Task: structure prediction
Amino acid sequence: MNPSGISNSVIKRLPRYYRFLGELKKEGLARISSRELSARMQLTASQIRQDLNCFGEFGQQGYGYNIELLQDEIAKILGLDKPQNAIIIGVGNLGRAIAHYINFEAKGFHLIGMFDAKESLVGQMVRNVPIRHISTLDEFCRENMPHAAILCIPKEVSKEICDQLIKLGVKGFLNFSHYDIALDHPDVEVENIHFGDSLMRLSYKLSN
Amino acid sequence: MNPSGISNSVIKRLPRYYRFLGELKKEGLARISSRELSARMQLTASQIRQDLNCFGEFGQQGYGYNIELLQDEIAKILGLDKPQNAIIIGVGNLGRAIAHYINFEAKGFHLIGMFDAKESLVGQMVRNVPIRHISTLDEFCRENMPHAAILCIPKEVSKEICDQLIKLGVKGFLNFSHYDIALDHPDVEVENIHFGDSLMRLSYKLSN
DNA sequence: AAAGATTGTTAAAAAATTGAACAAGTTTAT
DNA sequence: ATAAACTTGTTCAATTTTTTAACAATCTTT
Result:
């Protein structure tokens, strides 16, 4: 069990609930029962009720759940209603794609800066956010206090930047590098996305 | 337990073992014991021995593991020694970044094609692979038999393309879209990467 | 006011994961 | 050559996690 008292598998499922509820809303539906939702999501109704019950009582007997209301509640649970400032470190192909591709506001974050070591990139705007030189990171963080950093840099430079960011008060990382942040900094929240690992697992599954 | 008889958590750890062994090799080391490796990876020695024992006996009493040999064995387990043909569907910011950023050959795949619906992209080369028009997908697949597809397209078009690809014999997906492939096609191998979900989980962790 | 539906909650069952222990076999040092 | 020090593969038990089933309480609908 987590420090929070909520198991990891529940937390992992939350964004999916959020997404499905968004779709139901789009379909114009107003209410849904755990049984209907379970059929759609390929879960058991029991599991859905239990998952939600970790955080409160959002349904009504005989009625089910109000879709919009439940989605809002899950948004609150996920903290989406209080966006946190985030910066992107590394604006190569990946960093740039992330900046373009992701709707940060809808995922609980507000992108306030991008940093790279390449002088030629400095000053460029991506989605109204300017690329700054990595040497200005300290100053920027002291002034703007980002909560989270998205690491789109190679493993080799990750440790140094991480140390720096953590000293500056950054508490969370979306980590695309293969540097093991959590191992060196157990006090910090990390979400890892490792394309390579995912591909290797796919390779495994296809080979066996 | 999996069809294969190997638990998911073991499979999830395999790429990390592979990476760590690669680093040890780079450091010029030739052998390592489960205890040393466990200290580096923040696991128990027992777990490492048990994980490896799922696939065979790769160590020697009193000696430990030969690093290069063990890495090779894990490569074989992951199927990295027999690269599978892969295609990228959707060459927007994300697809392009993936194509540039990932060393497919090192992860068990061989990138043989990229597809997009935008005429203006057709003919462009990315890493020596040409972008083709999505209308030529059928023909291409029948001739080249890709095993895996990397979906860098929006949810709305994913279902249709998936159906098409599966009919054409594609067995594995690296899925960046929010379409639930596994739900409609339980017979197919899928690795999901959902940036949005990861960000929301990070938001949750930072808010609680 | 009765019938039907569905939640929140509890408790049990099942499954997965972890950790400790040790015989058997290797290596290293003397 | 021998003994001491290591380290694996493997087993077993313990723990934890996850899932499922069940039902009283309560709401909705007719």
